[in-house]
Amino acid sequence: MKRLCFAALVIFPLSALAVSYPVDLEQELNGAEVLASTETIDRDMAGLVLQNLGDRPVECTASFRNGPEMPRTRRVTLESGESKPMTAKFKRDVIRLRIKLTCEPQ
Predict the structure, then answer these.
(1) For the chain, which residues make up each domain, given as ranges?
(2) What gap in Å lies between CA 98 and CA 36, rounded to an integer?
(3) Regarding beta strands 97-105 and 23-28, do their DSSP bridges make them parallel or antiparallel, or are they unpaired?
C-alpha cells in the first residue's frame, strides 16, 4: 500500500501545483530604456520587475487590473542601472491580468 501511494505521488505532476494565468503587458515607454518582466507570484498576487537600462532616471507608473476589481496603481523612480519590483495583491483569484506600464524619462 505504501508503494502504491508513493507511486501515485510521483506520477502527479508538480507543475499542476504551480500558479499560472495570462498576463497582458501594455508598455508606453516614451523614449525611456526600461526592461519589464512580469511574474505570477500567487493565485491572487502578481509582480512586475523593472530595470532601467538608460543613462537618465525614469519615473514609472503601473496599473494592475484584474477583472471587475479596482485597478492597483504603483509608482516607482528608477535611477540609471537600477532594478525594482512592483507587486499587487487582489481580493479575488486572478484569471487574466492586465498591466499598463507608463514611463517618463526625467
Answers:
(1) 19-105
(2) 14
(3) parallel
DSSP letter string over the chain? -HHHHHHHHHHS-GGGGS----EEEEEE-TT--EEEEEEEEETTEEEEEEEE-SSS-EEEEEEEE-TTSPPEEEEEEE-TT-EEEEEEE-SS--SSEEEEEEEEE-
Residue 29 has pLDDT above 60, yes or no: yes
> In this structure, are residues 52 and 77 in contact, taking their beta carbons and an 8 Å threshold?
no
71-100 pLDDT, tens digit each: 999 999 999 999 999 999 999 999 999 999
Q: What is the pTM of this model?
A: 0.81
19-105 belongs to CATH 3.40.1000? no
